[in-house]
What we know:
two-stranded antiparallel sheet; mainly alpha; 4 helices
Amino acid sequence: MKGQTNFILALVFALIVAIFAVFNVDAVEVNYLFGTGQAPLILIILGSVLMGGIITGTFGMVRIYRLQRQKRSLEQRLQQYESTSPMEHEDNNQDSSPLEENSRKDDPVKHS
């Protein structure tokens, strides 16, 4: 359901940007590092939206990759913890549990 909502919101946003861009077709002067040039405003708007989407998507993928790596690490630690004997569990519980130990590390998820 969340995926469908995000998809619908993305379509609405794309439609709004497209309508806005179509109404702004005038040529504008663009200053580059090495000079200036003329470009239609529609290309500037669509290019800016595209670059913003790429940058946002890149940061999102990096975050997802870190969370998947952390999940895999925690699952491995849990399997190791479950494979030990109950006596070792009692000894380990006095020190700290694997989940508490990992939560002390620098994790990308900030808990509020």
